[in-house]
Amino acid sequence: MAKLGRELAAKGVDVISLSLGETDFFTPQHVKQAAKEAIDQNYSYYTPVAGYPELRKAIAAKLKNENGLDYGFDQIVVSTGAKQSLANALMCLINPGDEVIIPTPYWVSYSELVKLAEGESVFIDATIESDFKITPEELEAAITPKSKVFMFSSPNNPTGYVYSYDELAALVKVLEKHPDIFIISDEIYEHINFLDRHVSIAEFESVKDRVIIINGLSKAYAMTGWRLGYSASNKEIAAACDKLQSQITSGTCSITQRAGVAAYEGGLESVREMKEVFLRRRDLVYGLLKDIDGLKVNLPDGAFYFFPDVSSFFGKTTADGQTIANADELALYLLNTSHVAVVSGDAFGDPKSIRISYAAADEKLIEACKRIKAGLSQLNERPVP
Ligand code: PMP
């Protein structure tokens, strides 16, 4: 959708893109400064595969100070992004035929990475009625003797849900009964969380040794293009990820790593400011989306997305006689008619919904919601004769 939106914009159409999974903020000044200094100080050589020791130590300190978690620096493997850390973990853990339990909706790459690792995804379908969260019973029911990994993100992309301590504790109770299942906990949206605090499933000592935390700089420090992620896990998994990564990418960019040290050691001021802006935008967009007839929308507690159920528009007809059959077609309709780019839920395993990102300026958000409302209200109940 981002590509189609850009193509339309290149033809002179005023497209508002709410399709991308990245913040519209700039990288904090002190982080940029550290990168400039790294260039001048000749940080231009290969780095250790798992990252500079000072960066891994800074990440271990972050996990201790911000999350109350004890990890040695040798349990941290830095990569070229949370995506690579997810890939490392899955490739290391999954043998052909192993099952990976994934609640839907999920971030697009999860199921594709499982395929690459020759595993089988087992989906637990969650709906907007439960804020897209799964129950312990649903988790229990998905477990089979082949289950190897349970993988989820909280705060979540694409739905914005955030698991509370009690909700995670209930899932942990189930996982305690199945000691062979590893838990991949994608915490990349950790800081865009409107609840009291971020809870990591690694806080539960009974499962911590089999948790692989995935995180990175992309969202918290507005550094998607810099490419820095990491995993925190037990030492055996960390060593396996290091070994795998050494054959694929080697250590990530030296300049980025030095910038990463500055980010993790530089305090959370920029992160807090960004969160405040996202909270304000969330409330703004929620008010506007709630006002659109036929759109089923819930209030997300984190990330920067809405994931409304749009199934009430399926079967309706556009002004030129096309019937909207699914979320893909609705997203295309909104792009071509309302000139707003959103993403079909299909890619996230939920064909009833669309994802709307609110990582855009207020006036753009207001205008986009106005256009979406107008576009949807123009759909007709019955095919035009
Ligand atoms: N996990 C989730 C849930 C994401 O939304 C994203 C990015 N959209 C990633 C991982 C990948 O992040 P990175 O840029 O660090 O590879």
TrEMBL record:
<dbReference type="InterPro" id="IPR004839">
    <property type="entry name" value="Aminotransferase_I/II_large"/>
</dbReference>
<feature type="domain" description="Aminotransferase class I/classII large">
    <location>
        <begin position="14"/>
        <end position="372"/>
    </location>
</feature>
<keyword id="KW-0032">Aminotransferase</keyword>
<dbReference type="InterPro" id="IPR015421">
    <property type="entry name" value="PyrdxlP-dep_Trfase_major"/>
</dbReference>
<keyword id="KW-0808">Transferase</keyword>
<comment type="similarity">
    <text>Belongs to the class-I pyridoxal-phosphate-dependent aminotransferase family.</text>
</comment>
<dbReference type="GO" id="GO:0006520">
    <property type="term" value="P:amino acid metabolic process"/>
</dbReference>
<dbReference type="InterPro" id="IPR004838">
    <property type="entry name" value="NHTrfase_class1_PyrdxlP-BS"/>
</dbReference>
<dbReference type="InterPro" id="IPR015424">
    <property type="entry name" value="PyrdxlP-dep_Trfase"/>
</dbReference>
<protein>
    <recommendedName>
        <fullName>Aminotransferase</fullName>
        <ecNumber>2.6.1.-</ecNumber>
    </recommendedName>
</protein>
<dbReference type="GO" id="GO:0030170">
    <property type="term" value="F:pyridoxal phosphate binding"/>
</dbReference>
<keyword id="KW-0663">Pyridoxal phosphate</keyword>
<dbReference type="GO" id="GO:0008483">
    <property type="term" value="F:transaminase activity"/>
</dbReference>
<dbReference type="InterPro" id="IPR015422">
    <property type="entry name" value="PyrdxlP-dep_Trfase_small"/>
</dbReference>
<dbReference type="InterPro" id="IPR050596">
    <property type="entry name" value="AspAT/PAT-like"/>
</dbReference>
<dbReference type="Pfam" id="PF00155">
    <property type="entry name" value="Aminotran_1_2"/>
</dbReference>
